[in-house]
Predict the 3D structure of the following.
Amino acid sequence: MNETATQRTSATQPAAPWETDFYDPDFFDARAGEAAVDSHLTRYLTNVASLGSAGEILELGCGTGRLTRRLLERGHRVFGVDVSERMLEVLRSKAAAWPAVDRERLQLARGDVRNLRLKERFAVAVAPDDFLTHFLTPECLASALRTVRDHLHISGRLLTDFRVRRKSELAVGAGPGPYPVFSTGMVHGVCVGGCPRSVAAYFWKQFAPAERLLTTNMIFDVITTDGKVEGRTYKTLRQRLFTSDELEGIAKTAGFSDHHEVSESEVVYHEFTAK
Ligand SMILES: C[S@@+](CC[C@H](N)C(=O)[O-])C[C@H]1O[C@@H](n2cnc3c(N)ncnc32)[C@H](O)[C@@H]1O
């Protein structure tokens, strides 16, 4: 491998010193009850049910377990993988309160999906909520999809999705800064450090069109009940916005066929079959 050349691409350099831990489970879960999130999860449950395989499911990027919980409730056995120990910690503590019959069907592993080496094979792999955008180059995505393919039975399915981005936001994000804040919000009753707090969030985005790299910069202010800012957290998330054609081509070389896609409320859902 040519290390010098690798280091020169902006996709392989951190966008900010704190970039490695790009999700905060407390702030992430504060959005969990949103209608858009619920309809997204319902879509996965419906798709899994339509495959008629009440079997084993490999969940990629299971996070704090929003989909995991629902899959277990429907009788599936779930093997969840996530690279973030903090997200998994939250999932484990939630799972402690789930019925034992569900918990017994759950296995978890921490690590990058690309390094997964399990002996077992699955009927279905789900990679929800824009998961594949976390692989910042086509080579990284190809490596991830090959690993997923190696963990599926022949004719096993991969269900995934990409969010549709507003062209206007990407155009502004591709221009010179300063960038406008694209969304703000306030959520009350967020459990931060065990205490209910309000959290104000501010997001702005930068987009590098040549590499199709989207950087989302986030500030979260944690606010006490008397309106004082108790703490501020910066998060930086980078994503590679693959087109459907790119995804299809890479999936094909990784051993998948039969690509189907359907758009629904600003999300494109993809389904592939393992060859
Ligand atoms: C947008 S969150 C979604 C979490 C969960 N699927 C949900 O819908 O609530 C994406 C998750 O993928 C995880 N992740 C990102 N890159 C990963 C990788 N290469 N391998 C495993 N997990 C990864 C993150 O830590 C995060 O928990």
Q: What stands out?
A: Residues 35-50 form the longest helix (16 residues). The domain at 25-165+242-274 is CATH 3.40.50.150 (Rossmann fold). The longest strand covers residues 195-208.
